[in-house]
Write a structure and sequence with these properties.
With 157 residues, the protein is mainly beta. The chain has 1 helix and 11 strands. The strands form 2 sheets. Strands 1, 2, 3, 5, 9 and 11 form a 6-stranded antiparallel beta sheet that branches.
């Protein structure tokens, strides 16, 4: 009885059962979804922000992914940013809608050097996405740089 109660109150969290696998890396040679206010710079892109916005960068079609953690990785740098900027990933699950993950735990603000950021999205068994949308979200005014954008998948048990 105690074991049954424990399994209800403290469900087992999924654990990685293999190494991360890179699904896609985006370079400055790839075409951005958003063109306005973005220009190539420093092996990536320079984004001029005039007010809060979520800017679409790339979409990644997906197939046959289940029980995994999808992670959006990138390096960010800020220049005179009076708000914050962070990674934002939308995951489309057919028949269920779109769900997001935001990298609010490690935003850039002010003026910074390059920092590595990531935001994960946990897919439970039976959740099979068909599309990822990779954005950068920013509040306030200033400049944000982004480079080394990639997406990885870690299988979960």
């Amino acid at each position: 009885m105690l074991a049954a109660l424990k399994s209800i109150l403290c469900p087992r969290r999924p654990a990685p059962c293999g190494p991360p696998e890179e699904l896609r890396q985006f370079t400055s040679g790839d075409r951005l979804l958003q063109q306005s206010g973005i220009s190539p710079a420093e092996d990536g892109w320079k984004i001029t922000v005039d007010s809060g916005a979520s800017l679409p960068l790339f979409e990644l079609p997906l197939e046959d992914i289940d029980s995994a953690v999808l992670t959006y990785h990138a390096e960010l740098k800020a220049e005179n940013l009076d708000g914050q900027a962070y990674l934002e990933m939308w995951c489309r699950l057919p028949g269920r809608g779109e769900f997001f993950s935001k990298g609010l735990n490690a935003p850039v603000t002010g003026t910074t050097d390059w920092i590595t950021c990531e935001t994960p999205f946990l897919l439970k068994e039976g959740q099979k996405p068909d599309l990822l949308k990779l954005n950068i979200a920013a509040t306030g005014k200033g400049t944000v740089f982004i480079r080394n954008i990639r997406v990885s998948k870690t299988p979960m048990a």
